[in-house]
Design brief:
two-stranded antiparallel sheet, disordered C terminus, about 20% strand, 12 strands, about 30% helix, alpha/beta, single chain, 2 domains, eight-stranded mixed sheet, globular
Length: about 300
């Protein structure tokens, strides 16, 4: 599939895109108040940036398209969380629409200072996937069904697939047998809104391509499968080393991305050239491929 990458400011770049030209925006923006090799953004500056990004996202998305912003909360100090994530979720919900609250659980998150014995807090491992769009935006649940549980399979083998209504101590009622039958019919079970995906891929992660704060390939591929169809346009205004682009190409979508940091932009272009030729850049020495720039 085709792709394009732009090196520069993402808001200016998005303003150059035609209205209603993109099927989905899937991106992991920089977080405020964190030192990175590309600088540090204060909370107020971050909100100003993201309001422009969200406004442009609404403009360039097709009526049934949606946007996913992957964001991790952080602390002002150990024991005091910064409020920017919840403020972002609140104003985007009011001014646009949050389709559903969805979370990514990095099941391989390493211990941090928060979780040492003296401080006694828990290990931070959850990121918000802030999913914005119209209430009836496109999604294909069948493309992201989970493998059924062993309990489901056991119930089917034992013939416990009746449709009697079961009442639970909590007051909830359900037809468990019907659920077992439907999962077999569909080839999987409805996914939960917490996605347990370990950020440990040494082959496809942005980290293996020199990015210190990258999103795992499997998470991006899950969202691409869920909210787009083959041949559609996926946009990432904070492309980094283009893991979203790599997933888009492999899954038969067209990708357009923007990255302001020159080192990551160069790697992204090399990576997308490799993906387009059916080669994974992890097996190719950096710089071996010609640099392709399409603005």
């Amino acid at each position: 599939m085709s792709w394009s990458m732009h090196n520069g400011d993402c808001v200016t770049w998005m303003q150059s895109l035609a209205s209603e030209s993109v099927d989905a925006i899937i991106t992991d923006p920089p977080y405020p108040e964190i030192d990175r090799d590309y600088g540090r953004i204060g909370e107020n500056e971050w909100h100003d940036l993201m309001k422009n990004v969200v406004n442009e996202s609404r403009r360039i998305l097709k009526p049934n398209g949606s946007a996913v912003f992957i964001l991790q909360p952080n602390s002002e100090m150990v024991g005091r969380m910064r409020p920017w994530l919840w403020e972002f979720m609140a104003w985007t919900s009011r001014e646009w629409n949050m389709v559903q609250d969805v979370w990514w659980w990095n099941t391989a998150a390493a211990p941090t200072v928060h979780s040492n014995r003296k401080i006694g807090l828990m290990r931070p491992s959850l990121k918000a996937c802030v999913w914005l769009g119209s209430p009836d935006c496109f999604r294909n649940q069948n493309a992201v069904l989970w493998t059924e549980s062993l309990a489901n399979a056991k119930a089917r083998v034992e013939g416990r697939t009746g449709i009697d209504l079961e009442r639970r101590p909590s007051g909830q009622s359900m037809r468990a047998g019907r659920c077992v039958g439907v999962s077999a019919e569909r080839g999987g079970v409805t996914p939960f809104n917490v996605l347990p995906i370990a950020n440990t891929s040494s082959k496809d992660s942005g980290g293996s391509h020199g990015h210190g704060a990258a999103t795992p390939y499997s998470l991006l591929a899950w969202w691409i499968n869920y909210i787009t169809q083959k041949g559609q346009f996926v946009c990432d205004p904070f492309a980094g080393t283009a893991t979203t682009g790599a997933a888009s190409i492999r899954l038969g979508r067209t990708f357009m991305g923007c990255e302001i940091y020159g080192v990551h932009y160069k790697t992204a272009c090399e990576r997308l050239v490799a993906e387009s030729s059916g080669t994974n850049l992890s097996s190719v020495r950096f710089g071996q491929l010609g640099l392709l720039k399409e603005d």
